[in-house]
Recover the amino acids of this structure.
């Protein structure tokens, strides 16, 4: 167990953006809210999964909605508790701890606000090890854990509680309620026992995010290579180094889809890479061949500072490095790949783990 | 004839122009009170040409007074920040992320009230006039006369801010109100911050406008004067008193506009090489491209229109060093001590200026002092300088298309070879006072930047409405209606929002209406 203070959150937000693979929302508001909550209610207790009792009641907390609305209609603060308390009342039992459902992006910091206000510990784990666009895309789904009962609450005092037949239905109904609430809501979902958290979730991601953020900052202060620091911490690989040549974006069914093209520099001179994204990066294509794909993590870092760049921030001329990081092994079973693998996103290819291609030897010819 | 003045961190520059001809220019150190330097510069250009004050038609001034006040936390007016959106937004009250000293300097008076809109125009809650009157009484009791009003989603629907201002004004005489939708864009905290900063510059704005007037009348100049805005257009005295915050980035903007004018090119990259840093920007239709991300001023996040300028550590005074055979240039620099520290001026520090002289690019100081420099070192340093500029330009371009590159600033001697990615290289005359020229040639503009729901109107109707709003703003800023042109139309469909919401930004610009 360790205590989390505002300084830790600054690093955590940066590391969360690395794990966010280009998406996950703008961390600024989430970070500010968490810092305010800690200032008002005291530091948050971050506990490892092994510190949980098997029969503890653990409920993840998050914000759901449109990023454009989240930066405008900020929460009241009450809905944070309301979502939690309405689920607690329904379950007839006090919730012992909360946890992150998605450590990549905004929802890395949101649970800190909840933990501080509710006075409960936060478990150092998440449901993805990264960010993904849809609610059912969490490791809990693979263990048959239902996303519902799920509560949603808005700043007006509305609270909704839903029970669905499967987690894909949760995504549909929750999304619809969120829009009616004004396109932003606080949510509590995927109720679990301590035992289930230990089995189903990805451990240590919040600490990893903080460590990554701290490493980038320290590397820069000492004039060391921040990208090497990130690769080391994530067992990641440099997949490409170059200059952004083009970025195209369009909105499809409410998601930001698009692609970014890169021209290679240095040893990659003459080579081209394209990243295709749906909020988060889905595949990396080098000279016409897919070389990295979901569920592995693909992130773009500024070549000089090591800072992660979201898909919104990609612009012509930036010198960047594309890194590929292995996902948690939980995402590599056939069942998992049906949920979050390349084929789910429309790419008819077999998933090849990034360390197989980039591991020992050379890069693809 | 017109006079353009630019107040910079180091120098105040003035230029006297007749049509497109530069008749005289003068550079004088910026004074602590700022106004004395302006008077000195004005006197100099009049004296140099013997031109009568009566023949001056207008005076344009780009000033850092207001930026300085924020950065130095001096001469600020106490402000009441009123935010409308309850029950939403409570979790992060106004000024929550401000540096403590700035917050204290303006009194830290924050009020939350009902109001605000959802993304699709529904109200979050109704405006509560009783509540507002209660707030007004409290504000009046504290002796505060400047208010910043920010409502959730006001760029979509400004009426709540307007109505709230009416209510507050009815309770407090002499109230000065800044409405956030007139200053910033979507992003509540950033827009609210910009509105609060504007409100705290109220008294200073009235003061500065009055002292500019006095500077001019003391010199018998009866011409009206205008202040430069962040986007390169002008605002008249009345507008400047209301929106001082719109002057923050006028310096770099005027430099770029001046560069465009002097070179005759409207689509180009501009590199302004100074003593310590260089700024790179991109000209589109003769105006700097605007930054799309939050800009920090005085430690506060804001999102009002600012030019997109990339600064990097290369200037005429940058140190040139060899670390274990690895060549390094800058970011440290001898800055204004160039004329005592550089080798060519008898000092002992190897700077980029020394390299330029050794490489035959310029005749400055004593060339003999650098004759013994290693030829390879000089060549490598010149190549590295070139590369730094090329990388910076490439970073700011939006496509691979070659584009003209205009180089201004005292440090422009450092660039010798054509820059990669440049279709042509331009070093215009009078490059040292490009900023004052930019102020002098400025036009007047108006911009509208709002969200429209295309469920209530067609795209064409929304564009027409936006064009009309921008045009009206330009006219009320002083533009001659007959000269107004639509400069820029930007349409961004908003992702995630199902009500077919689109953000339309239109800038209208015209010549100053004379007489």
């Amino acid at each position: 167990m360790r205590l989390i203070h505002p300084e830790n959150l600054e690093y955590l937000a940066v590391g969360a953006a690395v794990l966010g693979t280009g998406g996950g929302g703008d961390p600024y508001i989430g970070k500010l809210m968490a810092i305010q909550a800690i200032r008002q209610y005291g530091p948050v207790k971050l506990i490892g999964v092994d510190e949980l009792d098997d029969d503890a009641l653990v409920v993840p907390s998050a914000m759901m909605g449109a990023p454009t609305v989240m930066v405008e209609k900020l929460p009241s603060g009450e809905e944070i508790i309301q979502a939690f308390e309405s689920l607690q009342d329904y379950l007839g039992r006090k919730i012992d701890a909360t946890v992150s459902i998605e450590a990549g992006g905004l929802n890395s910091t949101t649970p800190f606000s909840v933990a501080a206000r509710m006075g409960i510990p936060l478990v150092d784990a998440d449901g993805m090890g990264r960010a993904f666009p849809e609610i059912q895309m969490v490791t809990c789904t693979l263990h048959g854990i239902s996303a519902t009962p799920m509560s949603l609450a808005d700043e007006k005092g509305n609270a909704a509680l839903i029970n669905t037949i499967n987690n894909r239905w949760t995504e549909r109904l929750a999304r619809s309620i969120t829009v009616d609430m004004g396109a932003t809501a606080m949510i509590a979902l995927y109720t679990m026992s301590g035992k289930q958290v230990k089995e189903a979730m990805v451990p240590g991601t919040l600490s990893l995010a903080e460590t990554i953020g701290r490493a980038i900052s320290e590397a820069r202060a000492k004039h060391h290579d921040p990208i090497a620091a990130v690769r080391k911490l994530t067992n990641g690989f440099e997949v490409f180094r170059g200059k952004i040549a083009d970025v195209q974006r369009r909105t499809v069914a409410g998601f930001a889809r698009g692609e970014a093209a890169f021209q290679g520099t240095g040893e990659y001179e003459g080579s081209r890479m394209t990243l295709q994204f749906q909020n988060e990066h889905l595949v990396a294509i080098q000279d016409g061949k897919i070389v990295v794909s979901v569920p592995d993590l693909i992130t773009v870092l500024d070549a000089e500072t090591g800072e992660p760049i979201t898909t919104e921030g990609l612009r012509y001329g930036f010198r960047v490095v594309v890194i590929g990081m292995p996902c948690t092994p939980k995402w590599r079973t056939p069942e998992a790949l049906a949920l979050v693998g390349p084929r789910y996103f429309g790419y008819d290819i077999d998933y090849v783990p990034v360390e197989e291609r980039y591991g020992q030897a050379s890069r693809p010819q | 004839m017109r006079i353009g003045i630019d107040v910079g961190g180091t120098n105040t520059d003035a230029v006297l122009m007749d049509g497109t001809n530069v008749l005289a220019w003068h550079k004088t150190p910026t004074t602590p009170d700022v106004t004395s330097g302006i008077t000195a510069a004005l006197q100099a250009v009049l004296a140099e040409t013997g031109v009568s004050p009566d023949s001056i038609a207008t005076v344009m001034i780009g000033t850092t007074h207001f930026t300085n006040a924020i950065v130095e936390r001096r001469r600020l007016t106490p402000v009441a920040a009123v935010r409308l959106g309850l029950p939403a937004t409570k979790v992060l009250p106004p000024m929550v992320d401000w540096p403590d000293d700035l917050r204290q300097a303006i009194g830290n008076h924050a009020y939350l009230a009902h109001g605000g809109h959802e993304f699709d125009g529904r109200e979050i809650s109704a405006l509560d006039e009783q509540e507002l009157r209660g707030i007004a009484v409290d504000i009046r009791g504290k002796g505060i006369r400047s208010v910043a009003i920010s409502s959730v989603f006001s760029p979509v629907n400004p009426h709540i801010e307007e109505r709230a201002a009416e209510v507050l004004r009815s309770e407090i005489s002499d109230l000065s109100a800044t409405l956030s939708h007139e200053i910033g864009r979507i992003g509540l905290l950033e827009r609210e911050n910009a509105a609060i900063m504007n409100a705290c510059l109220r008294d200073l704005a009235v003061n500065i406008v009055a002292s500019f007037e006095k500077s001019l009348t003391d010199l018998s100049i009866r011409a009206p004067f205008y202040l430069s805005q962040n986007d390169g257009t002008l605002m008249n005295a009345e507008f400047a008193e209301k929106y001082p915050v719109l002057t923050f980035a006028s310096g770099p903007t005027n430099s770029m506009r001046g560069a465009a004018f002097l070179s005759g090119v409207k689509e180009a990259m501009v590199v302004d090489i100074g003593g310590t840093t260089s700024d790179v920007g991109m000209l589109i239709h003769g105006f700097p491209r605007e930054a799309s991300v939050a800009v920090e001023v005085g430690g506060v996040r804001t999102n009002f229109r600012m030019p997109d300028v990339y600064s990097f550590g290369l200037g005429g005074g940058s140190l040139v060093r060899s670390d274990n055979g690895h060549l390094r240039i800058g970011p440290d620099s001898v800055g204004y001590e160039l004329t005592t520290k550089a080798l060519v001026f008898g000092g002992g520090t190897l700077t980029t200026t020394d390299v330029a002289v050794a490489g035959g690019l310029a005749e400055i100081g004593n060339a003999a002092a650098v004759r013994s420099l290693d030829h390879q070192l000089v060549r490598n340093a010149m190549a590295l300088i070139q590369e730094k500029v090329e990388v910076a330009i490439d970073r700011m371009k939006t496509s691979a298309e070659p584009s003209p590159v205009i180089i201004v600033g005292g440090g422009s001697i450092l660039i010798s070879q054509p820059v990669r990615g440049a279709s042509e290289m331009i070093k215009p005359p009078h490059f040292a006072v490009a900023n004052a020229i930019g102020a002098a040639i400025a036009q007047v503009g108006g911009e509208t930047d709002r969200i429209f729901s295309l469920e209530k109107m067609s795209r064409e109707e929304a564009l027409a409405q936006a064009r009309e709003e921008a045009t009206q703003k330009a006219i009320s800023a002083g533009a001659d209606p007959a000269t107004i042109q639509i400069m820029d139309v930007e349409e961004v469909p908003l992702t995630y929002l199902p009500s077919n919401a689109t953000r339309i930004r239109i800038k209208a610009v015209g010549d100053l209406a004379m007489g």
